[in-house]
Amino acid sequence: MDRRRFLQSSLAASVAAALPASQAFAALQALTQVTGDVRAVTGDRSEISLEKAAVQELADSLRGNLLLPGNEGYDVARRVLNKSIDRHPALIVQPTGVSDIQNAVTFARERQLLLAVKCGGHSFAGKSTCDGGMQIDLSLFRHARIDPQSRTAYVAGGSLLAALDHEAMAHGLVAPAGTVSHTGVGGLSTAGGFGRISRRFGLTLDNIKGVDIVTADGKLLHASAGENPDLYWGVRGGGGNFGIVTSFQYALHPMQRQVIGGDIVFPLERARELIHFYADFSVQAPDDLYIDFYVNATASGQGSGAGFHLCYSGPESDAEKVLAPIRKLGEPVFTNVGPVDYVALQRSWDYSDFRNIGEYLKSGFVNEYPDSMLDAAISGFEPDPGRNTMLYFQQSGGAIGRVPVDATAFPHRKALAAMMVLTSWPLDTDGSPHIDYLRDYWSTIEPRTDGYYTVDSANESSQVRHGNYQGNFPRLLEVKKKYDPENLFRLNANIAPA
Q: Which CATH number belongs to the domain containing residue 239 in this structure?
């Protein structure tokens, strides 16, 4: 051990002794000892060797952590929520500040490393981890601050939605931000951001006032309507194609804390009747009502049903009138719809035990509800004792659809809903039959869809990915060529600059 590392290690040990356990771990991990060259892969999957001295220099440059296979914390950091994704990065950087992100991006660019960026780890296709490349794990880079006077939230790029909801609502303010509170702000905000109040206030990306972003050249840029406006336009719908957002500035809106929300579930055999009801009712709903429809079949049968999830954030005195058509559907098998704290409702879909479940999802936007599509969605839905199966319609429309298509990079403004089919299974069983079923099922209804939500992007061809951006693609391509010409940021709904 050289003298510098001896002094650093001794100092770190003395500091760690005075810190809580979690902080002490971070302090010690920042001094990862690199014992040899590191085998890795480039963006085109060519094998390379990273010299020991270079990797050690990267580790020493970080205030956060550098994790290598075998280090404590490596296996936690590399995993994503979909546990059927099991990938092993060559190295993981856990930044605690912007300079750490810049150092990691520069290191990856100079060596053309395959690069994955993880915020909340919700990507079904596992885009936030990789085999053999570098993963930048933003889990130590979290913070949310509210300025109630300007109605602005300043949120660090690795934060989860829970922080934004909690801090903003403490001031009687909200930003439309997803439906699961442990979702990362980065992927959701740059792809779209559908939430329970988006029909009132727009998508999450419609409420971005500005971002700070580390681009592929390692520079920190600010992007807003008045500064780097092309990048500001592109990052609102172009996903992670242009860099790593280190800070989001969100516009906030006044809203009461208590809303009417919850679920109303009916027997599974009523699914066909209910989906037709939903198609008629949802398109006429006021902006302050958000209502989704789902058909859910569990492996055990317990908890199966067809029903609605809703959030009404308008005047409480009008709630019963708005919800009256649903009440007339008859006696449900379960309901918990009633007054609820908005932040609690935002947490109501959270789940915490991801250890033993594999998942597969397909999705697409629907711009209309022809009877043929609704009937095909129900006819192809097959419960199975070996899996959980779900058909889901997440409502869009309202304020989302009143934004011009070219105002941001997000093009799917005319959608009435995002339709999803999802299956999950125990990891100790073979998931391939369930994936095959879902693909076949989806093939019967996909022709009625118009593009898909990019956070659900899997392994589509470049033609499909590019086509999904519709008329906004040519402008997006120019932004990509300007800020990431070598396609360092490619593990996303990728815009190939070539």
A: 3.30.465.10
